[in-house]
Amino acid sequence: MIRRIKGIGIHDDPAPEYDAVIIGAGIGGLISANLLAQAGVKTLLIEQHYVVGGYCSAFSRKGFHFDAASHFYPLLGNRESMTGKLLEKLGIPTEWVKMDPVDHFHFPDGTRYSVPADFDRYLNELKEMFPKESANLDAFFTEVRTLYLLGLLVYFRGKTTDRLDAYKDQTLREALDRYFSSRKLKLLLTADCPHWGSPPKRISYVFDSMLRLSYFLGNYYPKGGSQAFSNDLAARFEEAGGDLLLRADVSRIVIEKDAVTGVEMELGPVNKRRRVVVRSPVVISNADIIQTASRLIGEEYLGSDYIERLKSFRTSYPCYLMHIGLKDTEKEELAEAQGYHWREWDPENFGTTGLKFKFFVPTMFDPSVAPEGSQVVIIQKAMSVDYDAVDDWDEHKAELDRMVLRNLNKLIPRFSERVVVQMSASAKTSQRYTLNQCGSMLGWEMSPDQLGSDRPGISGPVSGLYQAGHWTKPGGGITPVIVSAMGVAEAITKNRIL
Fold it and tell me: Among 213, 242, 273, which residue terminates a domain?
């Protein structure tokens, strides 16, 4: 069951003054809001959409409940992990379903591999599949384990060590080429690169090592879908005394004497919008950082050089999505189709010609997200898109729709005959609902030159301004976003969270 959230009524105004105001109710904003509210900080959380969660939200059609974008959550159901401990500390009641296998890969030669949730089994299976690479697999994963621990220390805990110096500039592609010769093994070890929204030659080897091993500490699906998790966070925030404001457009971060003093926003029904100013000495932006700098603050305070530097960062790819509700279908019919469907061996091409799509079935983990005897299918395709060069977004999306349905009808007999709901979303759709530039799925990409000291930190360029989410340190993905939110709360309250 998805918890209801109250929110401030559409005809009502928030209080005139708060200790902290948060712009954007994505996961970074929701976690920051909970930590501050439970620390006794009077907090207002503002969201431009009519639901909370950002990419971790959902929508319903004809009894089918669809995750808008995110559909798996590493570590969150593991109470021994940093993020699992945090959710328990906050009292978040979300129930988690462990995913095992973790993922599935369909290769260009027609073979298929499912990644088990047990690491030892996984490594043994790889050695059996690639006996000539057995010693290299042992050496590679020994190094990956070391980088996982060092990455946690440096990127998540903010410590320093020279033990990471030899690796921090390496890409995933460089590491795999150093260890392996089999193109199939290299594809298998990069086949989930679309989760990062960037090709292996631009992905940090250290950051990838952290994601790779986190799967084996637990990959989870939230019972009730993504909206259930986001609503649980929002409801807990309200229970702690926080105020939540939906359908509100922040137009300006108010700055006086080089310090934040509040925000200005537009509220109310579409035909009766009203301007409201709320005062606060602290503003946290969980929004697109370029929009925060250029639209909400402006060159007047930041200067053109600062904004141009932000614009020089490379974004992760946007994502095409198709949401499908199927009637008269048992989950067993869809089991073999799950996972990534590769048409080429070179993973660098996943954003163009290399990958057909990922096929995901949420009803495998929680049947309640569809009517009885029905299934939810989500098709996801991370893409390299020249956003400004697309003249006709409707045709862009229609062309992808045709490709996807053509392949689905080959995979599953009578697929189209059973479709009850079919909707799709392009990069433009993602930008409209999240305001992420060009519909980027994970903010700026996690390349070696865009991590650590080279990535904007949680402290903004103006006194009293903080930043949380995938545009800031440590990076994109659910765990890094939560870590950024924890860092913001610690900086404001001066208290250690965990």
Answer: 213
- Residue 310: Cβ-neighbour burial (10 angstroms; 0-12, 13-18, 19+): buried
- What CATH number has the domain bearing residue 473? 3.50.50.60
- Do 82 and 56 lie in a common domain? yes
Alpha-carbon Rg for the chain in angstroms? 22
Burial profile 352-384: b = 16 or more Cβ within 10 angstroms, e = fewer: eebbbbbbbbbbbbbeebbeeebbbbbbbbbbe
Same domain, 158 and 92: no
* pLDDT > 70 in the chain, percent: 100
- Report the C-alpha gap between 397 and 378 in whole angstroms: 15
Q: Report if residue 369 sits inside a domain.
A: no
As a whole-number percent, the residues of the chain with pLDDT over 90 amount to 96
**pLDDT level of residue 71 (50, 70, 90 thresholds):** confident
Angle at which helix 134-151 crosses helix 205-214, to 10 degrees, equals 100
Instruction: Give the model's confidence band at 194: pLDDT under 50 very low, under 70 low, under 90 confident, else very high.
Output: confident
Residue-level pLDDT at 195: 85
pLDDT band per the 50, 70, 90 thresholds, residue 255: very high
Strands, E, within 3-135: which ranges? 20-23, 43-46, 58-61, 64-67, 73-74, 96-98, 103-106, 112-115
In a domain, 438, yes or no: no
Strand partners, 267: 274
H helices of 54-171, in order, are: 82-90, 119-129, 134-151
Last residue of a domain, one of 213, 236, 252: 213
Paired tokens of 300:
């007047």
CB 130 within 8 A of CB 357: no
Q: Is residue 464 predicted with pLDDT exceeding 90? A: yes
DSSP string covering 154-187: IIIT----GGGTTTTT-BHHHHHHHH---HHHHH
Whole-angstrom Cα distance, residue 263 to residue 24? 13
Closest-CA residue to 351 (of 440, 482, 479, 264): 440
Q: Is residue 151 part of a domain?
A: yes
The predicted model scores a pTM of 0.97
pLDDT digits (tens, 9 = 90+) for 339-359: 999 999 999 999 999 999 999
Q: What is the pLDDT of residue 70?
A: 87
Instruction: Based on the fold, state whether residues 85 and 165 are members of the same structural domain.
Output: no
pLDDT of 1 reads 67
Q: Would you say residue 405 lies in a domain?
A: no
Examine the domain organization and report whether 266 and 204 are in the same domain: no
For tokens 């095409």, name the residue: 320
Task: Tell me which residue range forms the domain holding 138.
Answer: 127-213
Q: Is the peptide bond before 101 cis (omega within 30 degrees of 0)?
A: yes
Residues 243, 172 within the same domain = no
Confidence of residue 104 (pLDDT cuts 50, 70, 90): very high
User: How many separate domains does the chain show?
Assistant: 2
